Amino acid sequence: MADLHLSTCKSHEYTLINFICFLLASFSSVALAVFISTTQTYFITDVLQIGENVGSYVGTLGLFDEILSMCLVPLMGVLADRFGSRVVVSSGFLVSGLSLFGFGYFVRTNVVPQMLFWRLVFAAGLTASLGILTVMVIEMNHSGFDLKAYISGFSNSLSPFDRAQEESDAMGGCDGADVHENYLERVDNLNKSRKDGTKVSYMGIMSGLGAVFAVTLLLRLPVFFGKTRPAGSAMRMSYYTVGVGAIVVAVIMWFCSFKSESDISFKDDLFESYAQDNGIREDLVSDSDEEYFSSSTVRETYWTSLKTGFQLSMEDPGILIAYLSGFISRCITIVITLYIPFYVNAYYREIGDCTKSSNDKVDCPESYILSSILTGVANLFGLLLAPISGILVDRLNNYTILISIAAIISTTGFLTFCLITTPDKSVMIYLAASMMGSAQIMFIIISMTMISNITSEDKYRQREGSISGVFAFVGGVGIIFTSFVGGKLADFSPKLPFLLVVVTSIVSLLAVLLLNGHSLKSLCGFSKPSERIEEQDASNLLDYASTRT
To answer: Around Cβ 508, how many Cβ atoms within 10 Å?
Structure first.
């Protein structure tokens, strides 16, 4: 049976320092994302002194933020392919830190264009640092790194090649499986051999810690600085402080991140493996030969990559459901980080508890505190559920049940939140917030684990870039959808964005039940896939793949 291991031909040493740096990147990038989302409402009201159409302003900022991010995601993949994830992630934190200084110093009078400009600069940096986490997860999973082995005194439990061989043996040759088998069962079986859920949960744990850190400490910085200075100045000092932290993280990333080619890029590995298998010395390979492998016949364009990622999701429900789960997780993230503070701020202003003092100090500290508590509870439960979710994924090996549980928890939590009329006096609102955070982390870990499982298959290994890129793209669509539509709805009622998530959660539940075992093309009555994806590959790749044993 042909067995092509495109991304494991060259083994790179993945150290404990690299792993810790990956955890720090997960922690810091989410902390920055949560900080900017939760403070934008207060920046508009306290710094710019704008009190009307705040929901629309916040939604518009989020919309353009995510549009830019979606445009930059493929570029980050190209940069990671060219320079490695270390350069991308460190540059991202540096740009994010500098943009926070820009917020504090240059934004003085309006949302557009001043605040929008620096939000876009921040978005560029965050896209690099947050978007590259998918690549860093794949680097870790495909490197054979085992934390337990390190603790026991071994540097690596398996080389990347041995790990891939073990997975192939455990699957009994997934490429030869019946094409009519249940798609989700195939992904379930993949996870039985890989156990990627636990590893992905590492990122979930650190992301949860980063979110909790942001809402419990960073969000309270304006209150801390507001004890001795006006509200606007307190907010600016908060942005300066967080900016310094982001720059420090950038320096750490530069010196400690994993230094290698991205696993999403397979060109160089394929070229060297081809040369070795055919007895070609590297120093005897001509420039024209290397140029051939580097040409457009091997390396796809951005648009072709996106098209391929979407086509694969039409033919494989496992990929489509992973995309949908990523979409829902982004929707929940935006509502927790953006619309909980907006709802609380609007509530306190409506009941008249926010009064402007004569010295212009922070006039509504209760709003900051309750916002930080509610978002903190949500992210704390996300943190606590991260390892449990990873264990459940690896133990149950049934994505249909897992996604159904996540959708039910999400629907219940957000619907309960909408029914509460006095958030400052209700105990149920903390239960609702905990369910929101639990659903969020479940969708994140489920979707990331599915992507890691699916891209481990030989038939998808050379499509990691396409699948990961579209996964990030769809997540961006979820953020745009929730930011823009939620912002418009929030101006009518601060609770409507929460109902938006209720609807999307119900849709996800129906989708996983409907698509289980069926491709979208078969459900729509389209013809069977005709190997169009494979025909797009260079003929030399196909010929080479068929000779590998």
So the answer is: 23
Distance in angstroms (rounded) separating the CA atoms of residues 274 and 548: 10
Here the CATH number for the domain that contains residue 42 is 1.20.1250.20
The domain in which residue 480 lies consists of 16-295+317-353+368-547
φ, ψ at 536 (rounded to 5°): -75, -20
CB 542 within 8 A of CB 534: yes
Residue 437 and residue 430 in contact, taking contact as beta carbons nearer than 8 Å? no
Q: Give the count of beta carbons closer than 10 Å to the beta carbon of residue 454.
A: 25
Look at the chain and count its residues: 549
* Block residue for tokens 């997975």: 167
| Secondary structure (DSSP) of 371-431 | HHHHHHHHHHHHHHHHHHHHHHHHHH--HHHHHHHHHHHHHHHHHHHHH-S-TTT-SHHHH
Residue 360 lies in a domain: no
Residue pointed to by tokens 């609770």: 495
- Residue 113 preceded by cis peptide, ω within 30: yes
- State how far Cα 435 lies from the chain centre: 20
Q: Whole-angstrom Cα distance, residue 417 to residue 415?
A: 5
Q: 433: which DSSP letter?
A: H
Nearest to 410 by CA among 438, 391, 387: 438
Single pTM value for the model: 0.68
pLDDT tens profile 198-228:
777 788 888 878 888 988 899 889 988 988 8
